[in-house]
């Protein structure tokens, strides 16, 4: 039986330039990073598996040293989120935090487009059955304020200091390519929620390594480290690896270590993987990383210009670039490497691009809301203007084919447009 979803038996095509992976800074294809890793790993006394979970035999100096490194890197003076807990993935980290930290008497206000891992964590928390989870409209400060006021009325214990109001947002949303209005949201938190009764958790999955000094993230670039209680940094996007770290208070970290199931019941990262993470941090947290960040920004600016020009006369429902909001109070150098191309026929566009070697996947409902079915283009520091020109030309080729097909259908005889009903047996 044919099922309309991938079975993962076949690898993605790789013959065309990469315009779809999360490898923002082109780390995974960097000869310099590869050579540095191979040189480093040969001097490691342990290379393979860690031998167990962090609480049993899998907490080696490899792990604790790297945890100390990222604590120093992402933490520092003025940071509320001052200590790191290492996880095997961003999914595990979000699941751990949201299923473990909020307790009975607390409530959560979250952006309606937060990642599935955040939603899964909240669904596994005590708050789910208590009806204490409140979504606000995506990136709407007005909706956020209304939700906070609603929560404080429904849960007077929070304002009395007997509970905590958690806030869950992301810096850059992966399907929309837009940014949260962090400064306005944090101002609303300070204004509406009594001091000491709020806990803001920000997911930097898609901005870690891209912004801030040496890639410390968007919060660092905006100077907001002293206003956010917990931060998630994942290593699977710009850092070119996998794994994640939660930066939080020592008390929350200790609670996660003792009670979070995604940390307790899984083998810790292999030694070679930690070696790779150290290599990548050496590579990106310095001049090489700064050059890659600058190049990615230039590629994004170039692509946006040529794409908007190319699509100017294309029917929006056939192919259009989703508007990506960057708050006006953000620095001018903040950019989005994510370009959601909205189409009424994303699957047909995928079927056109795949034979050309592009590793494209149509993103349908319910992964995205109805009307936002898309293919998601993601740029990388390693892309070139020539590659982007070629891709836009292919998009226009597909548009021309689709318009020609539509014209032929409209010119077809009336009888073909309305075939007779099948005779009843």
TrEMBL record:
InterPro entries: Aminotrans_II_pyridoxalP_BS, Aminotransferase_I/II_large, AON_synthase_class-II, PyrdxlP-dep_Trfase, PyrdxlP-dep_Trfase_major, PyrdxlP-dep_Trfase_small
Entry GO MF terms: pyridoxal phosphate binding; transferase activity
Domain Aminotransferase class I/classII large: 19-395
Pfam families: Aminotran_1_2
Cofactor entry: pyridoxal 5'-phosphate
Top-rank lineage group of the source organism: Eukaryota
GO biological process, one term: biotin biosynthetic process
Name of the featured protein: PLP-dependent transferase
Organism: Lentinus brumalis
């Amino acid at each position: 039986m044919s099922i309309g979803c991938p079975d993962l038996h076949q690898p993605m095509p790789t013959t065309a330039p990469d315009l779809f992976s999360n490898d923002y800074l082109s780390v995974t294809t960097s000869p310099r990073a590869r050579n540095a890793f191979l040189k480093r790993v040969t001097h490691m006394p342990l290379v393979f598996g860690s031998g167990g979970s962090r609480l049993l035999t899998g907490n080696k100096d490899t792990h604790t040293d790297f945890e100390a490194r990222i604590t120093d890197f992402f933490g520092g003076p003025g940071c509320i989120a001052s200590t790191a807990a290492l996880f095997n993935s961003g999914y595990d980290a979000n699941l751990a935090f949201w299923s473990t930290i909020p307790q009975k008497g607390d409530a959560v206000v979250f952006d309606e487009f937060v990642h599935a891992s955040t939603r899964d964590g909240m669904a596994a928390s005590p708050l789910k059955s208590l009806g204490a989870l409140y979504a606000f409209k995506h990136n709407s400060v007005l909706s956020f304020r209304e939700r906070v006021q609603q929560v404080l009325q429904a849960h007077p214990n929070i304002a009395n200091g007997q509970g905590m109001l958690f806030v869950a947002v992301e810096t850059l949303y992966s399907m929309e390519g837009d940014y949260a209005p962090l400064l306005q949201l944090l101002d609303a938190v300070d204004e509406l929620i009594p001091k000491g009764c709020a806990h803001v958790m920000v997911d930097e999955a898609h901005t870690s390594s891209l912004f801030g000094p040496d890639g410390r993230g968007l919060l660092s670039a905006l100077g907001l480290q002293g206003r956010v209680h917990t931060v998630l940094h994942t290593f699977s996007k710009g850092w070119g690896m996998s794994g994640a770290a939660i930066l939080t208070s020592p008390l929350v970290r200790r609670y996660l270590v003792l009670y979070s199931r995604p940390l307790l019941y899984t083998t810790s990262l292999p030694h070679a993987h930690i070696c790779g993470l150290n290599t990548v941090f050496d590579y990106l947290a310095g001049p090489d990383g700064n050059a890659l960040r600058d190049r990615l920004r230039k590629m994004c600016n170039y692509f946006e210009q040529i794409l908007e020009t190319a699509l100017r006369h294309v029917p929006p429902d056939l192919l259009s670039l989703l508007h990506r909001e960057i708050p006006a109070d953000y620095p001018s150098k903040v950019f989005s490497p994510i370009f959601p191309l909205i189409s009424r026929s994303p699957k047909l566009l995928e079927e056109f691009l795949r034979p050309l070697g592009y590793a494209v996947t149509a993103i349908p409902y319910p992964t995205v809301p109805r009307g936002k079915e898309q293919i998601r283009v993601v740029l990388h520091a390693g892309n070139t203007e020539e590659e982007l020109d070629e891709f836009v030309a292919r998009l226009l080729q597909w548009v021309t084919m689709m318009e020609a097909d539509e014209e032929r259908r409209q010119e077809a005889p009336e009888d073909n447009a309305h075939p007779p009903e099948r005779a009843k047996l």
